[in-house]
UniProtKB/TrEMBL annotation:
PANTHER family: PROTEIN PAFC, PTHR34580
Protein name, UniProt field: WYL domain-containing protein
Cross-referenced InterPro entries: CBASS_pafABC_assoc_protein, HTH_11, WH-like_DNA-bd_sf, WH_DNA-bd_sf, WYL_dom
Organism: Umezawaea endophytica
Residue ranges occupied by any WYL domain in the UniProt entry: 140-202
Domain Helix-turn-helix type: 6-62
């Protein structure tokens, strides 16, 4: 079991028996780690805001306040990223920090595999400025990265000339005026950014391409401050 899964399982174990405590030794045996590892994990959970406290005494141990924690949340990766994008609109409000904290708690309550998928998907969104005023993105484009299918698109250049391309979707860049789909263009055999309002037609194929990373430095944007989307930052 990796650490992320273990942290999730620790909280669920403490929730299941609350308000009774579990000792560090009991938890260590349960998860096949050392008591010191359990203590480090509990400390990390406490620092992230999980209401775990130590109950002293021979029969004491760690307890969680069940009333202040969430059971597993059926939030999908797409929904978590949508919430993160919506919260970017609160950057200049007094609620910026608390909104980020709320999202972190929701992500922490997701199933471990869904949370990992949400973080991966969020990392494929990059924003120039806040991206909040950009026009809407067609549904087929908005679903492209999460669906991980090769797209066949018609794309008009600045002179209106339309070409047909097969594109492996990699991520998105949003700015105040436009959203861009970033993808591996098989016509050009290179990464390209496609303005979504210039996509004239789109269809998803059944082909799942091999994964390609997308980092900020891959985008080669020489102006503006490029920010990677995070969940609850």
């Amino acid at each position: 079991m990796n650490r992320t899964d273990r942290l999730y399982a620790l909280v669920e174990e403490l929730r299941a028996v609350a308000p009774r405590p579990r000792s560090a030794r009991w938890l260590a045996d349960r998860f096949e780690v050392s008591a010191r590892t359990v203590e480090r994990d509990i400390s990390a959970l406490q620092q992230s805001g999980v209401p775990i406290y130590a109950e002293p005494g021979r029969t004491g141990g760690y307890c969680v306040d069940k009333a202040r924690t969430l059971p597993p949340v059926n939030l999908t990766p797409d929904e978590a990223v949508a919430m993160a994008l919506a919260l970017r609109r609160m950057e200049d409000t007094p609620f910026r920090v608390t909104a980020g904290s709320a999202l972190r708690k929701l992500v922490a309550a997701m199933r471990a595999d869904d949370a990992a998928a949400a973080h991966d998907l969020a990392g494929r969104f990059h924003l120039l400025g806040d991206g909040a005023a950009a026009p809407p993105v067609p549904h087929a484009v908005a679903d492209a990265v999460a669906a991980r299918r090769v797209l066949r698109i018609g794309y008009a250049d600045r002179d209106g000339v339309v070409t047909t391309r097969e594109v492996e979707p990699l991520g998105y860049v949003g700015k105040e005026t436009h959203w861009y789909l970033v993808g591996w263009c098989r016509l050009r055999d290179a990464r390209r950014a496609f303005r979504t309002d210039r996509i004239t037609s789109i269809s998803a194929t059944t082909e799942v391409p091999p994964p390609r990373p997308l980092r900020g430095e891959d985008l080669d944007i020489r102006y503006g401050v490029l920010q990677r989307l995070t969940l609850g930052a």
